[in-house]
Amino acid sequence: MRLLVSITPHGFGHVAQVAPVVNQLYRQYEGLELVVASSLPESFLRERIQVPFDLLDEAADFGLLMNSALDIDLQASAQAYAELHRCWDARVSEHAARLEALAPDLVLADVPYLSLAAAARAGIPGVALCSLNWADIYRHYFLGRPEASRVLDQMEAAYNSASAFLCPEPAMPMPCLTNRIDIGAIGMRGRNRRNELAERLGLAAEQKIVLVTSGGVETRFPMEQWPVSQGVSWLVRDSWQVQHPDAYRQEACDLPFIDLVASCDAVLGKCGYGTVIECVINRTPLLYIPRPDWPEDESLVPWLKQHRAAYRVAPDLLLNGAFADLVEQAAAMPVIRCDPVGADDAVRYLAAMLRDLEASVGVHREG
Predict the structure, then answer these.
(1) Is the peptide bond before 170 cis (omega within 30 degrees of 0)?
(2) Which architecture characterizes domain 194-332 according to CATH?
(3) Is residue 117 within 8 Å of residue 85, measured between CB atoms?
């Protein structure tokens, strides 16, 4: 059986969400062939999807076009959606022809709706998996546009054409779905290698270590303006080229990203599903940068607070970097861990579908 996994390139959170499901499904379902369709960096895809797969370097959607991790380019995004849906039927037919050539038995989308619409047209079963959908995101930002009604009808029809839309905890309400199935939280558990990390960085045991992440959309904070020697060391991406005596390159640690999450005293970043869930799973507090107009925050922030992992970063802290008190406060409060049972839930559903499909193919061949 062949599974095509279509992943939005809007940040890294969609991969963090779908990868544990794909990894577990591959190990449980004998003979499964995986094809991953995404334009995200192959190195990141293979770090998270830890089983063999063929890669199609293409994107079936874009999510939203971003100026930074915290700033949506609303005008460009609206125009891109208008253009996509101006020739929607032709786009679906074109994508369906590519699916027919690939001949997957099942399409799993997190969460490109074009892939689901094309699968339905090609007669291939589809399943959506995500804590959000682009129809509700589009409605939030672009409902007033003249083409919005037509765009939303096509988006919602695509999502509802799937056999199921699996919604991992905590998911947005998504009232437009008629095929919603709620499942548990999905995320990856890392190894706490705190002592090893401090040793590699040459840090004293009492020094606090904070992992800084922008969730896959490049955003650089003005860290050169931050205070020195406030008892906090920052792990940042090499591409940021930060010149600060307390900043260290994540890549130099030579540890998987998820182990860094599990080993640090806190994570600094925005509230994205992958970051939120992996902080709670690994009992690491999140110093979260609020996004007041991002609709998913209404689901993520209360859940984060419920697990005592939420520490709001005031906007001025990103400029002056006076984080010492907040880091101490976060490190002193134990996070209430959540077990990531959502991958088990999703695998049960997908494996049952694959078994039914395989049985129907066998009956057809014998007939």
Answers:
(1) yes
(2) 3-Layer(aba) Sandwich (3.40)
(3) no
Give me the CATH topology for the region 2-186+341-366: Rossmann fold (3.40.50)
Query: b/e map of 115-147 (b: 16 or more CB within 10 Å)?
Result: bbbbbbbbebbbbbbbbbbbbbbbbebbeeeee
pLDDT (tens digit per residue) in 134-164:
999 999 999 999 999 999 999 999 999 999 9
d(CA 169, CA 360): 32
The secondary structure of residue 223, as a DSSP letter, is G
| Cα–Cα dist 276/285, whole Å | 9
Distance, in Å, from the CA atom of 276 to the CA atom of 271, rounded to the nearest integer, reads: 6
CA angle 319–320–324, rounded 5-degree value: 125
Give DSSP secondary structure letters for 285-349: -EEEE--TT-TTHHHHHHHHHHTT-EEE--HHHHHH---HHHHHHHHHS-------THHHHHHHH
Break the chain into its structural domains and give their ranges.
2-186+341-366, 194-332
| 3-class DSSP state of 133 | coil
Position of tokens 């990203």?
257
Q: Contact, 6 vs 107, CB < 8 A?
A: yes
Residue 165: strand, helix, or coil: strand
Helix count (H) and strand count (E) of the chain? 15, 15
**Per-residue tokens: 132:** 């959000």
pTM higher than 0.70 for the full model? yes
**pLDDT digits over 8-59, tens only?**
998 888 999 999 999 999 999 999 999 999 999 999 999 999 999 999 999 9
CA-based radius of gyration for the chain: 21
Cβ-contact 20, 187 below 8 angstroms: yes
Cβ contacts of 188 within 8 Å, gap of 6 or more: 16, 19, 20, 48, 258, 278, 281, 340
Q: Are 23 and 46 in contact (CB under 8 A)?
A: no
Instruction: Fill in the amino acid letter for 163.
Output: S
Identity of the residue numbered 223? M
